[in-house]
Amino acid sequence: MSTLPRKLEFSDGCVKQMNTLAVVDQQKLGHSITSYISGRKRPDVHHIRTGRTFVRIEEVRVSEELWALVRKAAPNCYVMERLVQGDRDLVSQVGIDVAMRHWAVQRMANQAGPAARRVTSLAAWLSGPHRAHLQHEWAAHLAGSPEEGVVLSSRQKLLLAMGFLCAALRMRSSDAVRPAWRPVDWTLRSASRTNATITAVVGAQAVYIVGDGGLSALVTDVWEPCGIAGAGLYVLTRWLRRLRGIELAESAREPGDGK
């Protein structure tokens, strides 16, 4: 019977810790985590009870003074919470601290009410598989910050969940239209390509008018509509550059323009 491959995610704090490691330690960490994911490295496991919930903390040994602390978030999904450097005896206590914080966030999120939870789960699903981390982030927002006196009512949590849903829909719509912007951005990044496009459009309009009205239209009817179209396209391209955040590179100086 085949099993699903393990998935590993990283908390923001753990990413910051990894960036502070020496290159050698980063290489050791990568090798250890690869062995852990593939099942070749057997970690030390702690089942920590928090209320009625068991949180599974796994300690992956990297070296004599470096341990990776991993929490089992789902049957085949693990979250690397942080690194522990120094005395290995501290790992268990750190694991308890992480488990308690995670359980507190989940407990408060579960108090949001079934409607808010369902809407938040739907929003996380709609946001796309590459944004799976939003499920935990949005759950934490629903939990509020009780230690600082920030507790949301059921109605506020539902409104917040609806905001998550709107954000997820905007993310997916942005993902859908992004490929359509690529040829537009490619054209706008170069003044020559932009000018050639405007010239082609205005020229096609002039050919259509001449073909419909004859050569006499070349003198009487072409200039006004073509001028309006050219000016409109010029203004449109400048507005699109500002909208897309595109800046044209300065043209190179011609030889003899000065030092």
Report on this model:
The structure is a single chain. The chain has 259 residues and is an alpha+beta fold. 59% of the residues lie in helices and 15% in strands. The protein has nine helices and five strands, in the order βααββββααααααα. The protein has helices at residues 12-19, 23-38, 90-110, 114-126, 134-143, 154-188, 191-213, 217-220, 223-244; strands spanning 7-10, 44-50, 53-63, 66-74, 77-85. It has a five-stranded mixed sheet. The model has no long low-confidence stretch (mean pLDDT 76).
Secondary-structure map:
Blueprint: E1 7-10, H1 12-19, H2 23-38, E2 44-50, E3 53-63, E4 66-74, E5 77-85, H3 90-110, H4 114-126, H5 134-143, H6 154-188, H7 191-213, H8 217-220, H9 223-244
Parallel strand pairs: 1-5
Antiparallel strand pairs: 2-3, 3-4, 4-5
Task: Give descriptors for this structure.
259 residues; alpha+beta; 5-stranded mixed β-sheet; 9 helices; 5 strands; 15% strand; elongated
